[in-house]
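User: I'm putting together notes for a lab meeting next week and I want to include a structural view of one of the chains we've been expressing. I don't have a solved structure, so I'd like a prediction I can at least talk through. The sequence is below, exactly as it appears in our construct file.
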Amino acid sequence: ELSASEIALSLGFLPFEIHFGAFTDTARQIALANTATAVKWRDTIGLNKTAIGLNTSLDPTRILVVKSGTYLVQYSLQVTNTQVANDEISIWIRRNGAAYPNTLKQFYTGAVGVKNFFTSQAMMVFGDDDYLELFFSVKHNQSQLLKTNSLTNPSRPATPSAQIMLYRIQ
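Assistant: Thanks for the context. Below is the predicted structure for the 170-residue chain, given as C-alpha cells.
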C-alpha cells in the first residue's frame, strides 16, 4: 500500500486532488422568530481549498469553495428549547446568496431541556469561488443552537453547537 506522498514522489506529481473543509462553532446562536439566520463558523477542523468568509455584516458565515466541482455537504446542529412547548426549526443551504433547491429540512424540537441533534446532507455543484451558507429559522423565539461542555465520569469531549463538512467528490 502506497501513501499519497510516495505516489507523488515516484510519479513526479499527485494524480488526484483533495478538496475539503470541516468547520464548527461552539457559541450559542439565537434566531428571532420567523427570521432567516446564518450559522456562524468560528473554528476550523481541517481544510484544503475551502475557507471561512465574512458576510455583509462581517460575520463568519460563508464557506468559500476555491475549486469547482460536485461536493458532498454534511451538517449537524445541536438545538435546545428553552420553553415547555415544542418549537419548529427550519434549516436550509444557500449557495451564493440563493436558496439551494431541495435542501430545506424542518424539525420539531423537544420540550425544555431536551437536546436535539439535527443532521442532513446534500450533493451540491459549485463553481470556482462560490460560497455556501447554512441558515436556520424558528417558529417561536424559544430554540437556539447550543454546545455541550466537556463532561466527566466518564470523561467525554464537548459537542459543538454547529458542524459542517464539505468534501469534493468530482
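A couple of points you could mention at the meeting. Residues 4-11 form the longest helix (8 residues). Residues 49 and 66 are 5 Å apart (CA to CA).

User: Perfect, that's what I needed.
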